[in-house]
Design goal:
The chain has 136 residues and is mostly helical. 60% of the residues lie in helices and 7% in strands. It has five helices and three strands, in the order H-E-H-H-H-E-E-H. A three-stranded antiparallel beta sheet has the order 1-2-3. A hairpin with a 3-residue loop joins strand 2 and strand 3. Helix 1 packs parallel to helix 4, helix 1 runs antiparallel to helix 5 and helix 2 packs across helix 5. The chain is globular and about 50 Å long. The two termini are 17 Å apart. The relative contact order is 0.24.
Length: 136
């Protein structure tokens, strides 16, 4: 449902902001290995590979629930607030401080920010597909 998608988008993005903060504060994993080329492409193009379905990681799935309009507004506000807090930290964060993404590997602060953009766009497209199905 729309409500579940909104809950997932903003709850996950808030978690991504926490990962950015951890990288910026130097409390993440120290790792200087580059991401695999395929994952760098995903982040660069801000698109997951076409034709492949991704299941929400179990850790995140438990937080997906139907929310009402007020809860949606609160999550949007909290996410916006978190983004405003962590965005200035990205440029000064060490590129070797990383937090593990459940499926894509260790990301540094900049990569986590790119993932937030990719993740939000992915679900925006998903919502458009749902709307198109309901309107046809």
């Amino acid at each position: 449902s729309y409500a579940e998608v909104f809950a997932h988008i903003f709850t996950s993005n808030i978690g991504c902001c926490k990962a950015i903060e951890s990288c910026a504060k130097g409390t993440a994993i120290e790792n200087n290995e580059p991401l695999p080329f395929s994952i760098r492409l995903v982040l660069f193009f801000k698109r997951l590979p076409p034709g492949k379905r991704y299941k929400v990681p179990e850790k995140i799935a438990k937080d997906v629930r139907k929310i009402n309009r007020k809860e949606t507004e609160e999550l949007i506000y909290l996410c916006k607030e978190q983004l405003e807090t962590v965005y200035p930290m990205i440029n000064s964060a060490s590129s070797t401080q990383k937090v593990k993404h459940p499926r894509l590997g260790l990301f540094n602060a900049s990569q986590w920010y790119s993932f937030i953009q990719l993740h939000t766009l992915h679900h925006q497209r998903q919502l458009y597909r749902i709307m198109a199905l309901h309107n046809s």
